[in-house]
Amino acid sequence: MYIALRPRDGLTLKDPRGFNVGGGVQARSLEWPIPSTVAGTTRTAVGFAAGYSAKPDENGKQQWRALKTTVRVRGPFPIHRTSDAKLSLLWPAPGDAIAFPGKAERDVQLGWLSPAPAAGARGLWQGDESEIQAVEALWRASMDHRGKPLDMPRWWRSGDFFDWLAFPGNRRLCERAPLPERRFDMHLKVNPDQYTAEDGQLFGHDTMEYLRATRVQRPGPDMHIDEIAIGVGIECQDGLRVPVGDLWRVGGEARLARAEVASEAIFQFPDGAFSGWEPSRRFRVVLVTPAAFDAGWRPPWLHVLSGSNGDPPRFQGTFPGTDVEVVLRAAMVGRPVMTSGWDFEKDCPKPSRRLVAAGAVYFFETVDPGRLIKQTDLENLWLRSLHDPGSEAGCDGFGVAVAGAWPP
Q1: 22: alpha, beta or left, given left = phi > 0 and alpha = psi -120 to 50?
Q2: pTM > 0.85
Q3: 3 state DSSP class of 252
Q4: Residue 38 bridge partners (DSSP)
């Protein structure tokens, strides 16, 4: 099932930096929750609904630990809701798209970074010699446009995103997607004995607001509502249930969000978007949630294989959950997302991690020339994790991706 978490008073999603980093005493918030935050929120709500204790004994701790495998999570996915109750998903900007100013004001023209074989320069890569050679053998991206690119909108609406999956290329970004608004809150330290403020003990933190109302004229005064909810796919085992309709605690300061059943239609494979699909050996995959690969920028199931007939080594492996053996031809990966958190089981901070940001694009080609990717294969790969399904990252919702066309 899919649910939508609707934050009531915004969310505080602290990043790994300390309060005093960069001057001042301020906690900075991520714009959007990472999968492990939502997974922890979901399992906490499911555990309390099952009657698990907030102060468990050793047997109770085993019950909480078991939720890591009995409650599987996919997400989070941004759900856009408007005043007329229309629902749609928002998607991360693909890494193979680049934005340029269009002819009209605020018009955004898109260009495609198309990978092609090219001689690579020796980079500052770590690993054994064969892995370094495999990295240098990856194809490079190029495009004809020579203008200065714009800042890419972080989220795209479904129509733009599906069109880009079906056929990337020169096109216009139709409409900008709404973004959460950042609010800064200032607080002071209170003496617990006297209940008075302590001089000079000020601190602040960011709060992300996901509900925005603007006054419009149509034709009379009215309010237009833009709301972004957190979509989560949940699979429960062992008779556990998801407490829909309750208030869940999300992120820092235990901010509240109401859990509602979400329409599964917005998460389904868009058949119409790939109506003109022609079977091909090549396809590309776009991450829609951050990935926590042990191998860094690449999925760990891609192994380095030695080339034959003088060919350089390459990254090759079997796509998770399928029988499709592929070779990685190119990868467009942006800056990593730094994250940390609190380990409630060990009662200590989690070590900082570098995640592959959502929007990263991987270009694959089937090893078998006779194995062509059909539309049914794209549907099978829709919202599938690039992690091992049984791994902790896979159960937490990391590395969820969708597949699209790689035109010649």
Answers
A1: left
A2: yes
A3: strand
A4: none
Buried b (16+ CB within 10 A) or exposed e, 53-80: eeeeeeeeeeebeebeebbbbbbbbbbb
Spatial contact of 228 and 78, defined as CB atoms under 8 Å apart: yes
Q: Note the pLDDT tens digit of each residue in 236-245.
A: 988 899 999 8
Helices 35-49 + 58-70 axis angle, to 10? 120
> What's the DSSP call for residue 134?
H
Q: Tens digits of per-residue pLDDT, 326-339?
A: 999 999 998 888 88
What does the alpha-carbon distance between residue 130 and residue 220 come to, in Å, rounded to a whole number? 68
Those residues with Cβ within 8 angstroms of residue 345's Cβ, 6 or more apart along the chain or in another chain: 61, 64, 65
Statement: residue 116 has pLDDT above 90: no
Quickly tell me which residue has 């468990």 as its tokens: 56
212 bridge partner residues: 226
Q: Alpha-carbon distance 43 to 184, whole Å? A: 29
Question: Exposed/middle/buried for 371, CB within 10 Å: 0-12, 13-18, 19+?
Answer: middle
The CB-side HSE value for 293 (13 A sphere, CA atoms) comes to 22
d(CA 198, CA 188): 7
Residue type for position 97: A
**In the block, which residue shows the tokens 């760990």?**
300
